[in-house]
Amino acid sequence: MEQRTLELSPGVELAPVTKAISQERINRYAAAAGDFNPLHVDSEYAATTRFGGTIAHGMLVIAFVSEMLTATFGERWLSSGRLKIRFRGAARPGDTVTCRGRVVESGPERTLCTVECTNQNGEILLSGDAEVNA
After folding, report:
1. What is the reported pTM?
2. Structural domain spans, the chain
3. I need a labelling partner for 59 at 20 to 30 A (CA). Which of 32, 84, 112, 125 fits?
4. CATH class for the region spanning 17-22+57-133
């Protein structure tokens, strides 16, 4: 797996990942994951919930974070990466989600980053920390 060359000193920003959310993308994820919760795939049902419509699976959004971290750390992320995140909002069809990260600590044993995903309005969808061992 290819790894970006990046000086991983504190303050360095990771290359962001931006993805468009569509109902089709959500449906494809539901099929791949086997998760057909009506909140994600049934617009009539979802309209009756507090969300007022379908929302993307949380794990779909987390996959975008993992894509960003894999692009930066390559195999290191895949073999030793850990995420601690908190969901703060929902990604909806029509949203554009951007995931960003910043190195907060880097040493010979591990690298710590903050991560965050926002929608096109700047609303935070998730935030947290990522740790990658050397």
Report:
1. 0.91
2. 17-22+57-133
3. 112
4. alpha beta
